[in-house]
Design a protein that fits this description.
Arc Repressor Mutant, subunit A, elongated, two-stranded antiparallel ribbon, 17% strand, 422 residues, 10-stranded mixed sheet, alpha/beta, D-Maltodextrin-Binding Protein, domain 2, disordered N terminus
């Protein structure tokens, strides 16, 4: 099989397993058996270390197949005379010859998996995958959290770091009561490894891409309110325009998606930013006005707009500190001499709406058309007008590949077509 032809991750894992039981293959990779099942079905994406291991196994299988075919051709060329000559050899010599042939074939397969040749594409194992483990531990500050993010046993994470430290002759981490922190040597090593990893992944992306077409997996995070508007159109456009790209979509609150971006678990995400000054390197997808939300029939909500000053003394249902919206409301109270009466703290919009529906107070939220239901009403907060921003943000720890850039463009196109968003 030509390894430059398009192949899904699941197909590659099944090919690497090569008839082994899933349990035996999981033990070989150092992952759980259930993980192998999810990798093969496409329900989960393997970490870089597992992908690299599977790629090496596939290379070895291809090399062994090629070696066997070459031997068959050579045997046919030599013909019956060589077979008769071989039959006259002493049994010990024949056994030794056969043994040498087997060993040579295995060695050739292993060498072929690592060495480039003009007839065979180079391996995509460009950088030792243990350095990806190092980056994950450095980012998360914990072996257990890194193991969870990489979907591998903690013992394998510990072993990888120990092997790196042995090779370097220096400790990379020191343990604390809350996890691990980088040593001075680790601090010096981290930025250089991060740059090398980004360069290696960019090179691997170029190698994987066939005729310039994007290939690979792209992880995208979506806010709950964006799922209905973005998930379907983005998937449909990706399948039509970039069949070599596989989407991995994640739904979560803005703070959760921001954390996944920092950890490198997402390539990009739509997140909320409370103020324009916080947008920074992101791209604004939508501007959403803040509304006062309460039970339908409340006199304060009969008009389409409500001045900010009217919030003073109202029983409010707002998120607890240190939520960014709560911090913003605290600043506004000081700037405009308001008295904020927090009746209930609720940390999700659904909870805030439920409390408001029950008469527990007024919520302050971004209201999208048609999502309030029959029990609630809203009025836009003005004087001053308050807006939140839906921003497309890319992870600083993930490389910008052809696939990620293609999906980013698609996401912005979908956003442009969804002008009613917000």
């Amino acid at each position: 099989m030509n390894e430059m032809s398009p192949m899904t991750i699941g197909e590659m894992v099944r090919m690497a397993r090569n008839g082994r039981s899933q349990k035996a293959f999981a033990d070989l990779l150092g992952v759980r058996q259930s993980s192998v099942s999810r990798y093969e079905s496409g329900r989960a994406s393997p970490p870089a270390a597992v992908v690299d291991a599977c790629m090496r196994l596939v290379h070895q299988l291809n090399a062994q197949t090629s070696d066997k075919q070459s031997r068959k051709i050579e045997e046919a060329r030599i013909g019956p005379k060589a077979a008769r000559d071989n039959a006259t050899l002493p049994q010990s010599a024949a056994s030794s010859s056969n043994h040498r042939a087997v060993v040579t074939g295995e060695t050739s397969a292993v060498r072929a998996a690592w060495e480039p040749s003009p007839r065979k594409p180079v391996s995509l194992t460009i950088l030792d995958p243990r350095w990806s483990v190092f980056l994950s531990v450095a980012t998360s500050g914990s072996f257990s959290r890194a193991a969870s993010a990489l979907d591998m046993p903690q013992s394998m994470v510990s072993r990888s770091i120990a092997q790196l430290e042995t090779q370097c002759g220096e400790r990379l981490f020191r343990r604390t009561g809350r996890g691990v922190v980088l040593t001075e040597f680790g601090e010096q090593t981290l930025p250089r490894v991060a740059r090398l990893t980004a360069d290696a992944e960019a090179l691997a992306d170029s190698i994987r891409s066939v005729k310039g077409q994007p290939v690979g997996e792209v992880r995208v995070g979506l806010l709950p309110t964006a799922v209905k508007r973005f998930a379907g159109p983005l998937f449909a456009a990706t399948r039509e325009q970039f069949p070599g790209v596989r989407l991995h979509l994640t739904e979560g609150a803005s703070s959760q998606l921001e954390e996944h971006l920092r950890e490198g678990r997402l390539d990009m995400a739509l997140v909320l930013r409370e103020e324009e000054s916080a947008i920074r390197d992101g791209q604004v997808v939508a501007r959403i006005p803040l509304h006062l939300v309460g039970p339908r029939g409340e006199a304060l909500l009969c008009a389409p707009e409500v001045p900010l000053a009217m919030l003073s003394g109202l029983p409010l249902v707002v998120p607890s500190r240190p939520h960014l919206l709560r911090a913003r409301l605290d600043r506004l109270a000081v700037e405009h001499s308001l008295t904020l009466d927090v009746a209930v703290e609720a940390d999700s919009v659904d909870l805030q709406y439920a409390v408001a529906s029950a008469g527990g107070g007024f919520a302050i939220a971004s209201v999208l058309p048609g999502l309030l239901g029959d029990e609630l009403a809203s009025a836009r907060i003005v004087q001053p007008e308050l807006e939140r921003f839906v921003v497309l943000v890319e992870s600083p720890r993930r490389p910008a590949t052809r696939a990620t850039q293609a999906i980013k463009r698609l996401l912005l196109q979908v956003a442009d077509s969804q002008r009613t968003y917000g």
